[in-house]
Amino acid sequence: MINKKQTMDKRKTIALVAHDNMKKELLEWVMNNSEKLTNHRLCATGTTGSIIADKTNLIITKYKSGPLGGDQQLGAKIVDCEIDCLIFFWDPLESQPHDPDVKALLRIAALYNIPVATNKATADFIISSPLMNEEYERKLNIYEGYFNRHINL
After folding, report:
1. CA 9: distance to chain centroid?
2. How do the domains of the chain map onto residue ranges?
3. Can you give the pLDDT at residue 39?
């Protein structure tokens, strides 16, 4: 494994996602933290982004709705180091038709070492961290062995 570093700007790109039963809670969290969030770039899956944009003055880059590929779009942005933080209020009691996409998004976030909040308490800790307003060097693990495997056919 090779360690590489990637510097996050002082102004972070934060992805906002919420399952249907959690959209109200995420909206309330965004409204309570809107002053802090204005210092950052925001993006969201489609429905969540539309709700937040309609109820706040925040500028949101919107992708597709999660079940229509929005989770995968955010995952691709994480892989390209274009998203610095994921705030994903997911519903642990409700099965989702796109559960594999949700799992893939969370796996990519962990693999690319970005902060992830899956509930209000964790989101509060992340947004309150002094690191949110400073440059931050995050370590990226390059799994060289994974790419150098040979498959015998």
Report:
1. 16
2. 2-147
3. 95
